Amino acid sequence: MKSKLFVMSAPSGAGKTTLKDLVIKEFPDMVYSISATTRAPREGEVDGTHYFFKSRDEFKRMIENNELVEWNEVHGNFYGTPKSFVEKMLSEGKRVLFDLDVFGKVNFDKVYPEAIGILILPPSLEILEQRLRNRHTDSDEVISLRLHNARKEIEFAKQNGKYEYKIVNDNLNDAVNQLRKILSK
């Protein structure tokens, strides 16, 4: 029987969104989980497609009403996985690919311990910094924060995470092939 839940975690800029976008379309029975966030939409992002964009008050109500499988504050914004979305997809027989930070993955595993973990890593922190700068979406201050958090996230994942697979995203084609094989299982 094929696995139903896959969780990808990676520091910001490691390439998980690029990998997901290149591979998920090959699996018609798989959907990408949509997270709720208090982060402002980036150019081109659509509510209900990329994220469920919420105010801080709306997000806090979701926490109070136990409507999230997991949630965390990352880079000064809240992110979380709505339970209703996960249960709806599973009831429709869909497989679900999640993008969660390493801390959220620990909480997610308490609810869905059968989830397969995939840790996406940059080849180095220097290359990660180059990628973040090349996106031209964040200030120097935000990039510094993301790099600081990346160090903490990688260390936490190695010590506390449940990741059955690790992909070092050094060569995009190789990383895509590795992810494709994992999602085929």
Automatic annotation (TrEMBL):
It comes from the Bacteria. SMART domains: GuKc. Essential for recycling GMP and indirectly, cGMP. One of its GO terms (molecular function) is GMP kinase activity. Its EC number is 2.7.4.8. It is found in: Cytoplasm. InterPro entries: GK/Ca_channel_bsu, Guanylate_kin-like_dom, Guanylate_kinase, Guanylate_kinase_CS, P-loop_NTPase. GO terms for cellular component: cytosol. PANTHER family: GUANYLATE KINASE (PTHR23117:SF13), GUANYLATE KINASE-RELATED (PTHR23117). Coiled coil: none annotated. It catalyses: GMP + ATP = GDP + ADP. ATP binds at A10, P11, S12, G13, A14, G15, K16, T17. Belongs to the guanylate kinase family. SUPFAM superfamilies: P-loop containing nucleoside triphosphate hydrolases. Its main location: cytoplasm. This is Guanylate kinase. Pfam families: Guanylate_kin. Residues 3-184 form the Guanylate kinase-like domain. Keywords: ATP-binding, Cytoplasm, Kinase, Nucleotide-binding, Transferase.
